[in-house]
Predict the 3D structure of the following.
Amino acid sequence: MIIQMRSQWLLALVVCGLCCAAVVAAAGQVAPAASGAPHPQSTAAVASPGEKVFMDNCSRCHIPPMTLSPRITGTVVAHMRVRARLSRSDEKLLLQYLAPR
Amino acid sequence: MINFRRIRQNKHRNMRRNYPALLRLLIGLAPVIFCVLVRTGQCNAQQSAAEQPATEQTSAGYVPVISGAFAYIQNATGGVQTLTPQIVPVLLVPMGHSLLLESRVEFTGFFERENQTTGPYVGKVFKTIDYAQLDWLATSHVQAVAGRFVLPFGLYSERLAPVWIRNLQDLPLTYQIGTHPDGAGDGFMLRGVAASLPSANIQYSAYMSAHDSTTQLAAVRVAGGDTSIYFPAGHVEAGLSYERSLEGYQINNEAAYLSWQPQRASVDLKAEYDRNHYGDGYWIEAAHSPQQFFVAPEFFRRMQLVGRMEQVFVRNGGGNGLPRVNEQRPELGLNYNIRDDWRLESNYGRLFSANGNTNVWNFGFTYRFVWPLWPGRKS
């Protein structure tokens, strides 16, 4: 009984903490894209269709990759197309975004 | 004289006896597979230049790549220290624009003191082939995969499990539901995006795995599928997974998951509920990176705060990868991206269990790498 009560309190505490974090974050943090470790949810300054594809798909799971050499970008995007179940048109937009001519 | 007819009849009888569920599933899936193949043929016939990879509009090249991560995690559970170095190489070999050979292998050292809290560190290195698969990017909407693949069950196993992606180093308590024993299947899979609209994306996977008892390629006979819908406007994704075990106790595994990245907040919320014959449970995780902290914003932008709550409720005695008693574990983590490829990780959790409550600590780092295997230029 005591364990159950304690666990309920803990659950309530964690849920409250998560809500607070969400509220604090939502209170005015629209982040501009920046160097370093940009956050996946920084979508305010989405410029190109390729960047939108990146933000909509890749950023759901991981932060943007380190600088990719253009000569491997095709291989990496093909790999991510399978992982993220992307369409061919999305692959094309991603290539244009990650390895522009 | 050998009676081939009788042998064949016996073989068919054995198949009927051993694989009734498999046959039923195949018969049931036949119309779907037929439609997909017909659609694939139509798409190939109609494939326009616009659908080809846009190599003429980009500088993207297609040379083989070795990617992956080095990681080192020091774990302390109930006062027992464990050292876990890991090397996880991923090999990518493209063959033209439509075929890709890819493989991920894990070398994981597991070292702890001889008498748990005293004595020298002893242990061994485990080798696991996570996947070794050939991908055929058949059409814009269909990808065919053959070989050993990660079971696309739920949100965690395929997308969040790699050591360089997961926010907390401990796997969820319900991780083994749908992925038992090794999280991989040996067989074939169809996957892709069923509909790609401005308002929503619908993605799917359907797979079948054979039984394999080969060391490092172990898999069980299962069939299943996963589908999810993503709404770009709200950055919300919801999905369902189903898997049927076709050997031993033929049980169902089910999962439902949700992912949400609020547009105006740098918060990433993910949750998953899993259940099967042996138990059910959920995890809910939130990650937050302060993007515009009032002091040292550049420093705090690289920081990530993580919280996760999870519970598992056993049924029928539990086991099969699940605990034998009900458990719950709240966890808090703090990660820091020194650079894009270096990450420091730490987290603390408390496991509440009828077998005793314990503290769980993890400290470590991950180094992510992506290297071309040889020089090359745009194909």
